[in-house]
Specification:
Layout (H helix, E strand, L loop, with lengths): L3 E2 L1 E2 L6 H10 L3 E4 L1 H10 L2 H8 L3 E6 L13 E4 H4 L9 E6 L1 H4 L20 E6 L4 E5 L4 E9 L1 E7 L41 E6 L2 E5 L4 E6 L5 E8 L11 H33 L1
Parallel strand pairs: 1-11, 2-3
Antiparallel strand pairs: 3-12, 4-5, 4-6, 6-7, 7-14, 8-13, 9-12, 9-14, 10-11, 10-13
Length: 280
């Protein structure tokens, strides 16, 4: 499978320029060295270990399994475990947590993006480790800027029009079942529609940011032994959901997931009393 490179553009300086990027609704890379200079200068694994190594965090472990659901398994470990050089494929990494809540002292070294146009405070999550990985997924009604502080990350992204070909999970319709990783494409016979998609590819280096529009499915993996990034999320304007598709498809999929979850909860409630009555 081939992917086209993501375009590199000038950094947005104002909210109006950032809104223009959002309206164009395509991934782009731009420099954030001025904004992230202090964090780039001091954030490395030795620095994080000295300040927060003993802090317990929810961490994930790298896995060779193709089952996407294993990605969500977490363990409570000291951050120090996420900063170790992995001796096997099961190293820990800090993933998708509110980094400035877990490590509040870092806020002074990486201010909020000045051009994000959001009425509510943006959600900022961090990724720290040597083997960070995120399976195919898209953000529902959220735009994102992924800011690379240390090391580099490789992104593969699929446009919203490809969502019906990505075999999304029934209960989590924004997450794909396709075990795509490190550019390793699954056999076409297992996921035949996947081979007919139109991905783009981006390598985001320290001091750069990638704009990930809502509805663009993406998979991410780190490329260096020390990797630190922060992702800023903010609400997507409904006009950009894409009507009738994929906006209608997203809304229907979300409601389908909610209905199935409600039905499953009710079935468990009914099943519970029956099992108790049999036990007595």
């Amino acid at each position: 499978m081939k992917a086209q490179p993501v375009e590199v553009v000038a950094v947005p300086r104002t909210k109006e320029e950032a809104n223009k990027l959002v309206d164009e609704h395509k991934p782009v890379i731009f420099s954030v060295e001025d904004y992230s200079a202090q964090a780039m200068r001091v954030w490395d694994f030795e620095y994080l270990d000295s300040r927060y190594g003993d802090v317990e965090v929810a961490a994930r472990r790298q896995t060779t399994q193709t089952d996407v659901s294993s990605y969500f398994d977490e363990e409570k470990v000291p951050l120090r475990e996420c900063l170790k050089a992995p001796t096997d494929t099961r190293g820990y990494y800090y993933s998708e947590r509110q980094i400035f809540s877990d490590f509040p002292g870092l806020r002074a070294e990486l201010p909020e993006l000045p051009f994000v146009d959001s009425k509510s405070p943006p959600l900022e999550i961090g990724f720290i480790g040597a083997q960070t990985y995120t399976p195919l997924h898209f953000h529902k009604f959220l735009e994102a800027f992924s800011i690379q502080i240390r090391g580099s990350k490789r992104f593969w992204l699929w446009p919203p029009s490809d969502i019906p070909k990505l075999y999304c999970r029934k209960l989590s319709p924004n997450i794909s079942q396709v075990p795509f990783r490190d550019r390793q494409v699954p056999a076409s016979g297992e996921y035949p529609r996947f081979s007919k998609t139109h991905p783009v590819e981006a390598v985001v280096s320290a001091g750069q940011a990638l704009f990930v529009p809502q509805g663009w499915t993406h998979a991410i993996w780190s490329e260096d032994a020390e990797n630190i990034s922060v992702v800023t999320f903010f609400p997507s304007p409904p006009r950009l959901w894409g009507w009738p598709m994929p906006g209608l498809w997203i809304v229907m999929a979300m409601y389908r997931a909610r209905v199935l979850n409600v039905l499953l909860r009710r079935m468990r409630r009914i099943k519970g009393p029956r099992n108790q009555s049999r036990g007595t």
